[in-house]
Amino acid sequence: MSGRVCSAAPGADGISLRAENISFHYGAGKPVLEDFSADFACGEITALTGKNGCGKTTLARIIMGILVPDSGSVKLGKEDLAGLSLAERGARIGYVMQEPSRQLFSATTAEEIRFGLDNKVKKGLMTAEEARARAEDAMKNFELEKYRDAFPLSLSAGERQRVVLAAVMALRPSFLILDEPTSSLDKKRKSALYETLLRIKEENGCGTILITHDRAFAALAADREIVMPGGGRNV
């Protein structure tokens, strides 16, 4: 699907993520995004595709609050996310970068998965017991138990990706953004990622935005596709 406005029905819980009339440019260059709108639904995998430079990762960073748009807004349901901190957005929308190693900083896999949960415990948002249970569930769901005490950066690319996914999903976000998740995966690991995305959709009802150049994987995994035209203009 391509177009200035890309719509989807809200998920089963009624929550949708909407990027509305987003415009953005870097420095004095021409706009990367211009008056772009798109809807993403819970319980749906949406592939975001297009040529290099068309604004896919830029849009993701705007959604996450890493970049501030020149104009436009990002809403989760009826909530405008502009007033939220990066951490608050991260609790609602999980983000896995193209190179997951950039998100890893703990000494062990277990500590990595517990990090965000421990912050919730410190803020009184959950009990330590609940945090431990969620971390154990995430470790089991992403088949990471044998790497519990491993240094995350010593793991393979696919394993590092699973560590970040486990840490993100332990927070139970409404949406998940994956930036080029198949770029360093072989056929076996792509198949495993596909099964993981299906499980996340079915068990968590989480909406997923899949930023990818891998059209074959997009065709396999996505319920819907938004093609972003090149040239910095979405028409």
Walkthrough of the structure:
The protein is an alpha/beta fold and 235 residues long. The chain has a single domain (5-228), classed as 3-Layer(aba) Sandwich (Rossmann fold). It contains seven helices and ten strands. It has helices at 56-64, 86-92, 109-122, 128-141, 157-169, 187-204, 215-221, and strands at residues 5-6, 16-24, 33-41, 45-50, 71-76, 79-80, 93-96, 175-179, 207-211, 224-228. The strands form two sheets. The chain has a five-stranded mixed sheet with strand order 1-3-2-5-6, with helices on one face. The protein has a five-stranded parallel sheet with strand order 7-8-9-4-10, with helices on both faces. Strand 2 (16-24) and strand 3 form a beta hairpin. The N and C termini lie close together (12 Å).
Write the layout of secondary structure elements.
Blueprint (H helix, E strand, L loop, with lengths): L4 E2 L9 E9 L8 E9 L3 E6 L5 H9 L6 E6 L2 E2 L5 H7 E4 L12 H14 L5 H14 L15 H13 L5 E5 L7 H18 L2 E5 L3 H7 L2 E5 L7
